Amino acid sequence: MRMSIATVCLSGGLAEKLEAIAAAGFKGVEMFENDLLSFNGTPGDVRKMAVDLGLDIITFQPFRDFEGLPPEKRARAFARAERKFDLMAELGCDLLMVCSNVAPDCLGGIDRAAADLRELGERAKARGIRVGFEALAWGRHINDYRDAWEAVRRADHPSVGVVLDTFHILSRKTDLSAMRSIPRDRIFLVQVADAPTMDMDVLQWSRHFRNFPGQGDFPLLDFMAALDTTGYDGLLSLEIFNDQFRAGSARRLAVDGHRSLIYLMDQFSTKTGRPSSAPALPPRSACLGTEFIEFSIDDTSRPAFEKVLSGLGFFKAGQHVSKAVSRWTQGKINVVVNSDTEGFAQAYNITHGTSVCAIGLRVPDAKATLARAEGLLDRPFRQPVRPGELDIPAVRGLGGSLVYFIDPASDLGRVWDIEFKSVMDAQPNAGAGLTVVDHISQSMHYEEMLTWLLFYTSLLDVGKTAEQDVLDPGGLVKSQVVQSADGAMRIVLNASQSTHTQSSRFLSEAFGSGVQHIAFATDDIFKTAAAFKASGVELLTIPENYYDDLESKIEIAPALLERLQAHDVLYDRDEQGEYFQMYTQTFDERFFFEIVQRINYAGFGAPNAQVRLTAQARMARAPGLPRR
Ligand code: MG
Ligand code: MG
Question: Which class is 2-272 in CATH?
């Protein structure tokens, strides 16, 4: 199938949109009339611009309120169509997209609509143009693709076909089985959009909340299966109306769009075992865990950071063979401290200050993961490999940081032995009982959230949770988790439209999106807390009120409550299990660590988020402390 995208999906002026669409690798574009009208040039100029960019203008839309008009208005509608045909001739576009009529005075009747479409087809044919008819979910009389098809079938004209739009069909949960009776050559265009499940007016839902395939909840694979029964192999075009997209970067969103279609085709061919019309990709990579977290930090900040690490029970186990990079470890956790004065980490440090510049993920086959990432248009990262170093596959992640792939099968699995000399005088400290990385929390701009959701879910074998609202004292934070089924990898995506939330403050402090906190797991939170106390780690103080409230909400043994309070540990319980959390104070006004103990508990302590965020906001504002 040929992939295309509508200009309406993206922000910016028409030239900017077309450039972004071409740069993302699309060959086709749907031209929205408003984009053309607001363009400072002739349709001929637009045509030339598209040709120069290698783009085919596959349709011109929308042509509204056409079929079933009362006689006095009918002639005017045809005159309007003729003017569009003139314009399309200049534009070099041969398909007019007609949306079903929403006008209050339009008249029903399939045969009336068919007669109108037939006459329109006859006029179009004379101009070498075709007409595609789409049922809007809120159409006055025609609001179901089966009726649109029936009108097209009865119009019985070679220049008239049907347009299938997943939003209009799936938002109404229309039965898909009737699609198989549509001959494939009568389907002129298929438009795809996903959307989150929402209980709201379908018009508002469509105009503001559509998103790219894989970003919402629609059963698009069911739609693809139904479409497949027709043998259709024509155009698949994204038509997304979304407020976040209109606020985002056209270039980034065009790539997201293309990625979403590649991923949709990939999922369909994986599900059916049939070859895809898109190039085959290695399967979504399982995620076996977080192999390392890399911090970029300059020499000035490093001593304080290393003090935090040793306080948390880490010890320095290795020094890089050729760079100012060290490895700190505890349990199965590796923290890489990069203070090298050249290369990626240093550049990252200059822009973002002390921060997580890379995450290393453990996967079964790092090369295959990179190949899949490239197939999905993720941006690979390469830097010169010095003698004694491994070429570790990597792609650009959030905020320009890196995601490395490490596998146990190749030399990559021995990276710590190959690239690092063990530090002979290192005294493995007794540790604080930290075992693995439980989750990584990333803060980002609100309009980036869907980008990174798609990035992780298309590349890795992870699922997503429902989006949640978290109450920060500075406003609402949206939070969504991507995680592997066994919990080996969990990434929490956070974003806020308020500039006063912790999530947003992080973006301004750190000059962009990135990792805001890392949660390490322990098997015994109180043992870990005791070790922290012994080494002088300062934890986030939790107010007494929290524990009074906890006692009233959850039946809890007095001794446990006392212990929680004594160690500033937050607690949650659900039907399956228990969750314990404590937080370090914030380092460099940027990031912090969380320690969690899970006992058959799958969540993230959502009921505690507000108390924690408020405690952190209080710390950030506390006078006399070396923080804001
Ligand atoms: Mg549509
Ligand atoms: Mg957390």
Answer: alpha beta
